[in-house]
Predict the structure.
Amino acid sequence: MVVSRLVVFSFLFIAFASCKVKKVDVNEDNLIPVVVITDLYHPHQDPGDNFDLINAYTIPNIDLKGVILDCHNPYRNKVAHGVGKGLYQDTDGPREPGYIPVQQLNYIFGKNVPYGVGPFTPMKSRNDKMTHLSEYEGQGVELLRKLLERQKDPITIISTGSARVLAVANNRYPDLMKSKVKKIHLAAGTSNDDSDFLEWNVALDTNAFVSIMQSDLPIALYPCAAGMAQKKEGVFNAFVAGNNNTYYYLESMSFIPHMPNSLKQYLYYVYKREATTNYLGVLDSTFNNDTELFNRPQHMWETAIWMQVADLRLIKQENGEYKIVPQTAVQATDSVFREELTPSQIKVFESGLLTHEPSADAKKYVYTRNDPKSYQEWMNLALPTFYKSVRNVKQN
């Protein structure tokens, strides 16, 4: 379950003069090394996954080290059978791991970010090292190992799919994970126990979720679904906003045509569910002005992760404008939306359900926001501005 969430700041971005790139100096000491694990498919299952990855390339203080693709085998078929509890029988396949979107973004931003795929099938137990994997399906776990070993400073991991790659890596290389993982920002779970609802990312691999949550690794949990207190009759918990989950509803994607051409083409390719061989060539084409395709809403979940990792704030300025800015750019006259990571004791059941309570001495964290309704209102006003502000892209 992934989301559109792009936060960018023109005063930190790459400026252009006569279509030539002029780089703005960025203090390398402030860069945050990040690995992203995402259930990104091609063609998409949720176009929010494609938006999510744009963040990794555009937020100035994010140093993207690698992308690991987390895919569930049944969804590689035209009709997904045997998907498991908490998942739906998708009839909109087939699809494969999202190598093409990663290559497109590497092309657009002039990067060579390494990527690999994780195991297609769930773990058989919490302690499963999945030693039976082929080199192909093991490449995501091995990529994570190599990145951790090579990186001098601990790495921040953002996970917006299942926890399978994380759990297998921890079962295989516990000392490496303990010493080189700064924090895992995990989008998964239902905020406090609800016996009737198993959240999507947990359902993808329940053993993996339980395994990683019961580990001693530093974890910040961002529940995707609301718990019992916010549950609404007739509405899936994943589409209900609560104080401890991250969901909100973006009313329109109509700002996309105002983005740079290559990103418009990238997103047009996504929404049209294209599968053509010239997937790089289309990025250099002139946008065909088919704006109707983007007159649609988008369910959003993971904006909060990027905000916390990059130390960003959602604000309302004195002049009434809503923006997302670095914490260091907040002014005394700004109203700052309150959201934070709360130290919490988290109890995870074998079913994948959980409960959590604030605890000052806890070593794990749960996302908290004080007003989900206002959060949605502010984000609808702030987020489009940042999409339209992107400048550090390939120019046609």
